[in-house]
């Protein structure tokens, strides 16, 4: 398995975490390096990460990559994707991904000196993050979304999102006791430590 991405990307980190936990070997092609970026652009019309090549299979979306890995390798100790929880978990992932996409936009615009109040659309994006994070806090049941006490795709999505927001100083999520508790609880996992952005 050849995984294209950077160690700072939260979407790439989800794949790295799952591979670490399930013992799936891969080679990381660093797309922050010029050669890796060129190779990515030559192979992937989206120019986005993560992108994987597994034998003859080429996939350029983190959700589809995870689907493929679970289909081929099983879900290991993770909450299976299918079951009565499926639609709620899918909604949670969609909400968390939306918050992350908006946080990434704010981060890059800030780097260019553009603040969220520069346009109504950007203000709406910033407010959307707050709305989603409030919703997520209500949905958490301690450190998990479901009573099975297992890590599933929604917990993986939330951890990578909160940790990236904290790493990039987009929002002070670590000051919220619920999110701080979630980060501290799951952050003890060896694979989260090994895949931390630097």
TrEMBL record:
It comes from the Bacteria. Signal peptide: none annotated. InterPro entries: Glutathione-S-Trfase_C_sf, Glutathione_S-Trfase_N, GST_Omega/HSP26, Thioredoxin-like_sf. GO terms for cellular component: cytoplasm. Residues 1-77 form the GST N-terminal domain. Gene3D superfamilies: 1.20.1050.10, Glutaredoxin. This is Glutathione S-transferase family protein.
């Amino acid at each position: 398995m050849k995984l294209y991405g950077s160690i700072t990307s939260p979407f790439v980190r989800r794949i790295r975490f799952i591979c670490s936990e399930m013992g799936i070997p891969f080679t990381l092609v660093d797309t922050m390096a010029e050669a890796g970026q060129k190779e990515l652009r030559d192979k992937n019309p989206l120019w986005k990460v993560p992108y994987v090549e597994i034998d003859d299979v080429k996939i350029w979306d983190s959700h589809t990559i995870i689907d493929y890995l679970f289909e081929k390798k099983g879900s290991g100790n993770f909450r299976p994707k299918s079951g009565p929880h499926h639609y709620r978990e899918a909604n949670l992932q969609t909400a968390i991904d939306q918050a992350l996409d908006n946080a990434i936009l704010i981060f890059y615009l800030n780097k260019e000196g553009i603040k969220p109040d520069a346009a109504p659309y950007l203000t709406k994006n910033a407010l959307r993050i707050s709305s989603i994070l409030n919703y997520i806090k209500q949905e958490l049941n301690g450190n998990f979304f479901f009573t099975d006490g297992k890590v599933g795709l929604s917990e993986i999505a939330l951890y990578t999102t909160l940790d990236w927001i904290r790493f990039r100083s987009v929002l002070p999520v670590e000051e919220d006791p619920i999110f701080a508790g979630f980060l501290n609880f799951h952050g003890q996992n060896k694979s989260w430590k090994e895949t931390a952005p630097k």
